[in-house]
C-alpha cells in the first residue's frame, strides 16, 4: 500500500504522508495542507478529524473495544479500583505497591478544601445545578493553589493531579449537602476513595454511613468505566483550553461544562427522566421508541447511540451486569431497571436502530446503579465528572508534554456578508 495520499486540485497533485497508529488506524497527515495548497478541510463535528496523537486510550468502535493504556476494560471488573486506574491513565503504567501507597496518601492529605471555600457554597442557591457548582469550584481551586499554575516537573504534577482528584469528590459531596441543607462532613482519613466520598455524601454528625463492599465495588466500577474515552467532547475541551497554557484547574472546569450537556455526560440524567416518564405511565416503551424514530418529534432514545461505538459499548454491558447483581443483593426492586431492559429489547430488534448501529451506551445503566445506592439524579453527571477527571488530567498533561506551544485553533469557512459599510443608527431600517 502507498505510504502517501495524493490530492488532486485542478491540474496540481499534492502528496501527503499516511500516519499509522499502534493498532493500525490510519490518518492522512495534512498539517501543511493550507500552507501548500491554500485549502483547509471542513469537518463539522470532527467525525473524521484526528486532533492529536495520544497514547492513553484505544477504542475500536466497530468491535466494541475499549482499552486503557492497552488493558481491556473488562479486566478491571474483578477487582475494580478507581485510584489504580487513575494512576494508570495519568502515568502510563499500573502503580507498584509503593506508587499506590504514595498516591493513596497524597489523596488522603489533599482531601480537605481550604476552610474559606465553604463560604463559596453558601453563595449558591439551594437549587443550583451541582454541575454549575462543580465547575465553579474546580475553577476556584486555582485561587487556593497558585503553586500549581506552572507544573514543571512530574512530582509537582503528581501532587496537583492528586489534589484535584481528591478535592473534586469533596466539592461534589459538599454541593450535594448544601442542596439539601445538611452540614458538610469532613473527609475521613481512615477511609479509601469511594467509601470516603459516600461518607461525605451520606454520613450524619450523629450516624456514620457504612459502605457495603458491594456498593464500594460498584461505584469504583462506575467511576473507572467513565475514566477516559479518548477525544470525546469534554476531553477535547480540556485539551483545547490547556493548549492556551491555561492551568490544570481552569482546563478541567471547562471539561465539566462540556460534559454537562445531554448529548454527552448529561445523558445519564436524561435516561432516568425518560425511564421515569415511562414509569409514570405518561408513555409506553413502544411509543417512546416510536417517537425516538420520528424525526419531527426531536426525541431521542437517551442512552442509545454513540459517535464512536457502532456496536455494544463494552461499558454498557458491564454496567448492565452489575445492575442485575447489585439491585437484588441490596434488596432494591427498581421498576426502572425493567423498563430499561424492555426498551433495550425493543430497540435492538428494531430495524431503525439496527441499521444505524445504535446500541446502549455507558449512560443507559449507570443511573440505575447510582440510584440504587442513593445517589440523587441531579448528581449523576457530577459522578461522571469525578470518574472522567483522571482522563482529563492525563490528556492535559500529555498535551502539554507533546504539543509544546502549539495552541489549538481550528479554522472555518466564512459564510457571513462580504465587506459592507457601517450605517449611522438613524439611517438603519427598523427590524423589530
Ligand atoms: N435515538 C434515536 N435516533 C438516534 C439516536 C438516538 N439515541 N442516536 C442517533 N440517532 C439517529 C440520528 O437521528 C441519525 O439518524 P439519520 O441518519 O436518519 O439522520 C443517526 O442515528 C446518526 O445520528 P447522529 O446524531 O449523526 O450520530 P452522532 O454520532 O453525531 O451522535 C450521539 C451520537 C450524540 C451520542 C447520539 O447517538 C445521541 O444523541 N444519543 C442520545 C444521547 C446520549 O445517549 N448521549 C450519550 C453519549 S455517550 C457519552 O457521551 C458519554
Describe this structure in words.
The chain has 17 helices and six strands. It has helices spanning 33-37, 82-91, 97-110, 117-122, 130-144, 154-179, 193-202, 213-225, 233-243, 248-260, 267-279, 285-293, 314-330, 335-349, 351-355, 363-372, 380-402, and strands spanning 4-9, 12-20, 26-28, 57-60, 65-68, 71-72. α11 (267-279) crosses α16 (363-372). The structure holds acetyl coenzyme *A (ACO).
Average pLDDT number: 95
As a percent range, the share of helical residues equals: 40-55%
Radius of gyration: 24 Å
Structural class of the helix and strand makeup?
A: mainly alpha
What percentage of amino acids are in beta strands? 5-15%
How many beta-strand elements?
6
Distance from first to last alpha carbon: 61 Å
Could you say which small molecules are bound to this protein?
A: acetyl coenzyme *A
Runs in which pLDDT lies below 50 for 5 or more consecutive residues are none
Query: What order do the SSEs take from the amino end to the carboxyl end, as H and E?
Result: EEEHEEEHHHHHHHHHHHHHHHH
Q: What is the assembly state of the chains in this entry?
A: single chain
Total helical elements: 17
Largest sheet: 3 strands, antiparallel
How would the blueprint of this fold be written?
Layout: E1 4-9, E2 12-20, E3 26-28, H1 33-37, E4 57-60, E5 65-68, E6 71-72, H2 82-91, H3 97-110, H4 117-122, H5 130-144, H6 154-179, H7 193-202, H8 213-225, H9 233-243, H10 248-260, H11 267-279, H12 285-293, H13 314-330, H14 335-349, H15 351-355, H16 363-372, H17 380-402
Antiparallel strand pairs: 1-2, 2-3, 4-5, 5-6
Bound molecules: acetyl coenzyme *A.
Residues 263-265, 267, 292, 300-307, 356, 358, 361-363 line the site of acetyl coenzyme *A (ACO).
